[in-house]
Task: structure prediction
Amino acid sequence: MPYLTIRTDKPESEIGLFDGEKKLAYETWQAHRQLGATIHLKLDEIMQKQKMALQDVKGIVVFEGPGSFTGLRIGISVANGLSYGLQCPVVAATGDDWIRQGITHLDSGENDTSVTPHYGAPVHITQQKR
Result:
């Protein structure tokens, strides 16, 4: 039962593929400002290396934060979009053991349906100039 993991809270992003808690593949790269352009390429690479299609993914674990505002938005949007398109569960997790936590939640049948980021501080939005 392949699970996809996504972490995009810092300049170095991570995508993993797990069968239960057994790591099948894991990719880390310096995404920084190119995250939006590279995340789908890295996802495609990791799936091809394992000779799998996205349709084989049975659940998604995404790191919810705290972390970079834009990085979290991109990674969580990708996770939510894939979950919706593949009709598979998505769960959010945080902390050092976020992958294990998320896989445990998926194994127990949990589904957050739609994940929202946790930035670790209030979001500061500037007032519109009139």
Remarks:
- The mean pLDDT is 93.
